[in-house]
Design brief:
This protein is an alpha/beta fold. The chain is built from 9 helices and 8 strands. The protein has helices at about 20-30, 40-50, 65-85, 95-105, 115-125, 140-145, 160, 170-175, 195-200, and strands spanning about 5-10, 15, 110, 130-135, 155-160, 185-190, 205-210, 225. The strands form 2 sheets. A 6-stranded parallel beta sheet has the order 5-4-1-6-7-8, with helices on both faces. A two-stranded antiparallel sheet has the order 2-3. β6 (about 185-190), α9 and β7 (about 205-210) form a beta-alpha-beta unit. The longest helix has 19 residues, at about 65-85. It is globular, with a radius of gyration of 18 Å. The chain starts with a strand and ends in an 11-residue tail after the last strand.
Length: about 240
């Protein structure tokens, strides 16, 4: 069946990281005179990221969001570098991290999955409205534009701007409200089983799990696809 609106996650769904975060962090650290093993740093980053609270800041004024986002990511990076005993080696970690943070607002650390532009164009031509729902931060807007993806989307909704993160139903509700004439027949596609598939289903959308790496589903799923081109839509 053809949906009226399709929402998509961002990182891991539309675009991914060139290499690993640990490799990028390690390269920038080397430029600051600090040598860190990329693999160890990447594992430390993953542990730090998933142990952190979700990137959502309810009650924070829009003008204060960029500073709050920077603090959140700096805390994640700080724990990662501390875990590999490299944090104290930086002469000025604040300056180092500002450069690193700004880097991830550019297209350089990212790549677009090969099928994405063509599939998005096809869905647009079918009259389907498209939106992004992501637990990224406000840099998402500049990244989508830099990767030549922004024009495919009618709306972009990020957790930091809403004050709630997937799988919280609130972020889906806010995104749906931007498509008032399309609220019936809304789908959400993403690579996270909990945040994207289960979160969408619990919010009343149809969830589709994008399983690019062939992981074993942690539970039953109605729809699982390995890339976006595997999803066939009919007009009925």
């Amino acid at each position: 069946m053809k949906p009226s609106v399709i929402f998509l996650d961002a990182v891991g769904t539309l675009f991914g990281v060139q290499g690993t975060v640990g490799e990028i962090y390690s390269r920038f650290a080397a430029q600051a005179g600090v040598q860190v093993d990329p693999q160890s740093l990447n594992q430390a980053f993953i542990e730090s990221f998933f142990s952190a609270p979700k990137a959502a800041f309810p009650g924070v004024a829009p003008s204060d969001l960029p500073a709050q986002e920077l603090r959140w990511w700096k805390a994640v990076a700080t724990r990662a570098f501390q875990q590999v005993d490299a944090f104290s080696a930086f002469a000025d970690f604040d300056d180092f991290f500002q450069i690193l943070f700004d880097h991830f607002a550019t297209p350089d650390p990212w790549f677009v999955y090969p099928e994405v532009p063509q599939v998005l164009q096809q869905w647009q031509q079918q009259g389907i409205q498209l939106g992004v729902i992501s637990n990224f931060d406000s840099r998402l807007h500049s990244v989508l534009a830099a990767l030549n993806l922004r024009d495919y989307f009618d709306t972009v909704t990020s957790s930091t701007e809403v004050g709630a993160a997937k799988p919280d139903p609130q972020v889906f509700t806010v995104a749906l409200a931007k498509h008032p004439d399309r609220m019936n027949g809304a789908w959400h596609i993403g690579d996270s089983w909990e945040d994207d598939y289960q979160g969408a289903e619990q919010a009343g959308l149809r969830g589709l799990w994008l399983n690019r790496s062939g992981k074993t589903p942690p539970g039953p799923t109605y729809t699982e696809i390995t890339d976006l081109s595997r999803l066939t839509l009919t007009s009925e």
